[in-house]
Design goal:
The complex is a heterodimer of chains A (615) and B (164). Chain A is of the alpha+beta class and 615 residues long. Chain A folds into 3 domains: 198 residues, Aldehyde ferredoxin oxidoreductase, N-terminal domain (Aldehyde Ferredoxin Oxidoreductase,  A, domain 1), CATH 3.60.9.10; 201 residues, Aldehyde Ferredoxin Oxidoreductase Protein, subunit A, domain 2; 165 residues, Orthogonal Bundle (Aldehyde Ferredoxin Oxidoreductase Protein, subunit A, domain 3), CATH 1.10.599. Chain A contains 25 helices and 17 strands. In chain A, strand 1 and strand 2 form a beta hairpin. With 164 residues, chain B is of the alpha+beta class. Chain B has a single domain, classed as Alpha-Beta Plaits, CATH 3.30.70.20. Helices cover 29% and strands 17% of the residues of chain B.
């Protein structure tokens, strides 16, 4: 027995054709599932050079092979698509019941192509697939959409992944929301859904999931559930990720005023500790998670009274210090708006911060902003602008393109302080004083993302001198990326990582007990490296060159002005050297391309075959 | 023997639904929430709890069964299902005010009700619950714990201290 059915559901929105294919069982050894499998399916099903918002782009969803089982934090899924923000791989992860439902409906993956004539939602009811009119849902927020679908179907066991108004309006950083409050957040998959006139994917899955060795799995899960209550997860369980605010402020790497500074004067007021004391309601968990890290917070009084959201560090930094906003109530309101409209709050916040800097430098005037005084710290202007972005009104229509495209439109100096990598807005750590992380950001396949390498870990934990840069950082960045790729493909939550003594060995044990596929620790680890290379291969096919692996000019020209990391800067030479070291560690050419030998070592020869055919 | 059942503290329950997986794993050797004898309900972002058989004093399910397939064991208060008589009609499911009865879709269709894992040292859901939200308690214990919590709240409020 195995939890892996090996079935992929292909859906064409244009023709309404559906088909179930059996995947090569070897895929679950090579790519595991999740991000690895989704990327592989995207690679196979999307024609090279597709327009991200055209019908030929593909949304490849893949569940964890461990989903819907007792494996702690295993109920996750990923989507891979060509990002409308970066033009490269857009892979995103979410958790909870939708993943379990797709798995229980009998599918490892779901590949969607084409474009419906009018607003439609897809209902996957085990083996029955239907296309349902969604005119009455168009314009509704994600939460309301899900409520309406459940009411229409009269079944609370149906799980929904949907887009909000931002996805409908093709905001390039629109997200997909599932189970009301979880998001496939980054790189704009919601805009791709919107471009397909696909409002939602509702799933009813009723098939049991049988593990290969249930007794062993139960024991492993029980042990891990206990470990997950220990010190390794205390940060997430008690205050949650917002606890980062004060930690990063103390290190002088809390991005403030659109990355102009690394310390925020009002850090205490927007800290996780303050949030917990004044706004916290409950800490909740995703499906099958023994940790529980989601901090549900709300505003009790004042102008934002009633606003509520599950708040993590990244939205908090983007809508808080990055915009100079020192009012948690406003941050909660703005984050809740992003969720309702269905857009990535990191990209939204960093894009607003960019607009604020444009305004303060005179590149945008009050005429451009329709009267908003867009100075740093003006939280009312921020909240108003977030709404306008989600609905593409006024200046919001420009900002909905993301800060890279918006800067190109504004012109002048604006591009210099558009804080993005490959078009994806940056997360909340300053790379000038975290050199390994700087490298991870520059070379990451999805652009300005902290999750696909978490390369700040060796910097912050003191494994290396965080201010110094050298060639060896390439080895660390590779190690971090491959670790994240295995985690994201087998799909364990990153917050569980500290509970493993030896992740690759223990992870492979979970994988075998669940799926029946015996992988050695080394094979499990190599799957991560393979997935990292596969992601890069997709980007190369979409026209990537070495010049794309670079960071915004601000980090290379302006030292951090003050605080514990004051004076820190990243030179072009340092970045070049680290990138050289990274390509070398990867076994790629000095231009960052893959050799036939390297692909063969990883069992990715068929990518090469395809490239030969193309030439 | 005193009457005990699975009690869920909604303040501790965080909606992970591990209890459902643990139950279906031990009872049906599979992962399937719909076969679980304990079900979790998440009403809003912060309101959630798990529910299973309360081992009622006058069980409506037993009264409702038209085929006399259900009975209550005098000593343990457990609801017993005579599978050869049950045809899965679902009257008991409707009668139970707690929604604590599951329908087993496998052939032959029968209903499934929590038996507190009487053959194990403790109920599997209680053992797996990562937040200790589930306990095996009697109504008397629940009452006493509630009184205790209320008193703590009251004293805390009166004393104006955050913790005792």
């Amino acid at each position: 027995m195995s939890t892996v059915s090996g079935r992929v559901l292909l859906v064409d929105m244009t023709t309404r054709a559906t088909e179930v294919q059996e995947l090569d069982p070897e895929y679950f050894r090579l790519y595991l599932g999740g991000v690895g499998l989704a990327t592989r399916l995207l690679y196979e099903h999307m024609p090279p050079g597709a327009d991200p918002l055209g019908p030929e782009n593909v949304l490849a969803f893949a569940t964890s092979p461990l989903a819907a089982s007792l494996v702690p934090t295993g109920s996750k899924f990923a989507v891979a698509t060509k990002s409308p923000l970066t033009g490269f791989l857009g892979d995103s992860i979410s958790s909870s019941y939708w993943a379990a439902a797709l798995k229980q409906a009998g599918y490892e993956a779901l590949v969607i192509r084409g474009r419906a004539e009018k607003p439609t939602y897809v209902l996957i009811d085990d083996d029955h697939i239907s296309f349902v009119d969604a005119e009455h849902l168009w314009g509704k927020g994600s939460y309301a959409t899900e409520e309406q679908i459940l009411a229409d179907l009269g079944d609370p066991e149906v799980r929904v992944a949907s887009i909000g108004p931002a996805g409908e309006k093709l905001v390039r950083f629109a997200c997909i929301t599932n189970d009301k409050e979880r998001q496939l957040g980054r790189t704009g998959p919601g805009a791709v859904m919107g471009s397909k006139n696909l409002k939602a994917i509702a799933v009813r899955g009723t098939k049991p999931i049988r593990a290969a060795d249930l007794d062993r799995l139960s024991q492993l899960a029980l042990d891990m559930n206990h470990k997950a209550q220990g010190m390794a997860t205390a940060k997430y369980r008690i205050i949650g990720t917002p606890t980062n605010v004060l930690v990063l402020n103390r290190l002088g790497i809390l991005p403030t005023h659109n990355f102009q500074a690394g310390t925020f004067a009002a850090a205490e007021q927007v800290s996780g500790e303050y949030l917990h004391e004044h706004h916290w309601q409950k800490t909740v968990a995703c499906a099958g998670c023994p940790i529980g890290c989601e901090q549900v917070v709300h505003v009790k009084n004042g102008q934002y009274e009633g606003a509520g959201v599950s708040l993590d560090y990244e939205p908090l930094f983007a809508l808080g210090p990055c915009c100079g906003v020192d009012d948690l109530a406003a941050i909660i309101k703005a984050a809740a708006l992003c969720d309702t409209l269905g857009m990535d709050s990191i990209s939204a916040g960093v894009t607003v911060a960019w607009a604020m800097e444009c305004y303060e430098r005179g590149l945008l005037t009050q005429e451009d902003t329709d009267g908003l005084e867009l100075n740093f710290g003006n939280h009312q202007a921020m909240v108003a602008l977030i709404e306008r972005i989600g609905r593409r009104q006024g200046l919001g229509d420009v900002l909905a393109e993301g800060c890279r495209r918006a800067a190109a439109q504004i012109g002048g100096d604006a591009e210099r302080f558009a804080m993005q990598v490959k078009g994806l807005e940056m997360p909340g750590y300053d790379p000038r004083a975290l050199k390994t992380y700087a490298l991870g950001l520059a070379v990451g396949t999805r652009g300005g993302c902290h999750n696909r390498s978490a390369a700040y870990e060796p910097d912050i934990k003191g494994e290396v001198d965080r201010f110094a840069a050298d060639r060896e950082r390439g080895v660390l960045a590779k190690r971090q990326e491959d670790f994240a790729a295995t985690l994201d493909s087998a799909m364990f939550c990153k917050f569980l990582r500290g509970c493993f003594q030896d992740f690759y060995a223990e992870g492979a044990e979970f994988y075998e007990a669940t799926t029946g596929l015996a992988l050695t620790a080394e094979e499990f680890k190599q799957a991560g490296e393979r997935v990292s290379n596969l992601k890069k291969a997709f980007n190369i096919r979409e026209g990537w060159t070495r010049a794309d692996d670079w960071l915004p000019a601000r980090f290379l020209e302006e030292p951090l002005p003050e605080g514990p990391s004051g004076g820190a800067v990243l030179t072009s030479d340092e970045l070049e050297t680290m990138i050289d070291g990274y390509y070398e560690a990867r076994g790629w050419t000095s231009e960052g391309l893959m050799t036939a030998e390297k692909l063969a070592t990883l069992g990715l020869e068929d990518l090469l075959e395809e490239r030969r055919k193309a030439v | 023997m005193r009457r005990e059942f699975i009690v869920c503290d909604p303040n501790k329950c965080n909606g992970c639904r591990i209890c459902e997986l643990a139950c279906s794993a031990i009872k049906e050797s599979t992962h399937d929430p719909m076969l679980s004898r304990i079900r979790n309900v998440r009403m809003t972002a912060i309101v959630m709890m798990s529910v299973s058989c309360r081992l009622c004093e006058k069980p409506a399910c037993v009264t409702a069964c038209p085929r006399l397939a259900l009975s209550q064991e005098a000593e343990t208060h457990l609801i017993k299902i005579e599978k050869s008589l049950c045809d899965g009609c679902g009257w008991c499911i409707e009668a139970c005010k707690f929604g604590a009865i599951a329908l087993n879709r496998d052939t032959p269709r029968t209903v499934e009700i929590c038996d507190l894992c009487y053959d194990l040292p403790q109920p599997r859901c209680v053992e797996f619950c990562p937040k200790d939200a589930l306990t095996l308690s009697s109504p008397e214990q629940v009452g006493q714990l509630t009184r205790r919590d209320t008193l703590i709240d009251l004293i805390t409020e009166l004393a104006g201290v955050e913790q005792l």
